[in-house]
Fold this protein.
Amino acid sequence: MKRILWLLVFIPFLSNAQDSTRVDLRNPYATVYTHLYFLQEDSYEPSKSAKTILGFSEEMAIEKAIKLKKILDGKGLYVDFNKISTNPNYNDTIGYSASYKYLLFPQRMPDISVEKVNNNWYYSSETVSKIDKIYKEVFPWYVEELQKIVPASGHKKIFSIELWQWVGILVMLIFGYVLFLIAKKIAFLILKKIQHQITQKTNLELNKVLLKLAHPLSLLLVFSFFDKIFASFQFGLEINTWVFKVINIAIVVFWIYVFLKIVQVVMEIYKTYTAGTHGRLDDQLVPILNNFFTGLVMVIGVFRLLALVGVDTSTMLAGATIGGLAFALASQDTVKNLIGTIMIFLDKPFHIEDWIEAGEVVGTVEKVGFRSTSVRAADTSVYQIPNSKLSEIVINNKGLRLFRRYHTNLGLRYDTPPELIEAFVKGVREIIIAHPETRSDSYNVEFSGFGDSALLVMVNVYFKSLTWGIEQSSKHRLHIAIVKLAKDLGVDFAFPSTTVTIENFPEKKGLSPKYDTNMERINAVIAKTVSDFTSENPKE
């Protein structure tokens, strides 16, 4: 019984030892492991490694297998076997539905893949056909030439790095700095020319942003140069893995910075455009769009960085989708407000500084945000109206009126003679025509009826200015002129009262005022009142 137990314990170890010495092409993991294992120093059997290359003679297959290994080492592409599938029927990493294919490095080297042919896995025909091309890109022609001219002293090591490699790094850094200075100058001139063609004007603030944009663009060019040249120094897999990871992270960071500055440049150009438009609602859209695109760039950039450090972003996206659905269900009001904001900017029912009536709220629009709109009332208090509600209710936009209508009734005493009523109506009409802030072609001044305590004269006028303050000052001038007219004509305004009539009261005269209905005097009074009104300067 003990012998059987010991045998069961040793069987897995024996099988693993056997797997490490034979060619195994059953699944993606086995094929990649076979290729790399038989090209290691302690297990170097290139003929077995070449079995992963299909359709070539043994000599050609060995050459391509070795080149592929050098490509992986040169670009610092570390193979994490824990992430490679052991499923012999693995299918679809990038959308292939009709063939069995697995990509080793979908982000950094999508050209390298393995595929299933019959019952075995080999490096794909696309990969094999591109090996020579990729090898020449990673190790250009001058690499072998440099190796030939490097003297024996150049292979001396300082801190485990050969002397010629130190010299090569120094030359690369110097050339990169010179390239940075030249590229920065050229990039700024090109960006400035593009900006001038779009806006047709010089903007100093925008020039500062463009200069900041030229900086990361030139750095991108320099790090792309490092990415192309560093493999030529042949440092080995361990060093290359870290160096290329740093280079790729730096490139992504610079791209994030570039797109953030592009967003800033576009927003500055859009801000210049909106400054020339009539409405101010477009101006309010600038910060909203700026925040949206900035957040979008940051999210995409972070996911790209996570992918470079080995995080499975597809799993994160799946989790984010489920979590986002739950979050959306829990925050329906926020989503409604966001949709309401979009509808406001699309329909543009009002602009900034428009005077609106929205339900019970009456005031001037100050700001339109992601969630709500700020409306300042006449008493200077501020109402925050959710955009979801604002997009559904009826909005009376008084800011879109062509004129401001003013309607009132003037009450004259019942004992006012008809001649003075006619003269008063005529005088008010003349005042309205002479008023610089009223429409002289659209007004009504008529004796409209009989009230409980007064004879009613209807006044209906339209003020030209849509500004509330100017409207009030215009009303003031109109009212003062009417009061002066009534005083000069001898017309009294009525007020709620009760009249008791006594037919005979000894030695007492009636209390009714004496009215002067002389037409020459009346016309002179009207002319003088209108003349005085037109000669007055309106109060600022």
Notes: Residues 1-19, 93-97 have pLDDT under 50 and may be disordered. The first helix runs from residue 2 to 19. Residues 71 and 501 are 119 Å apart (CA to CA).
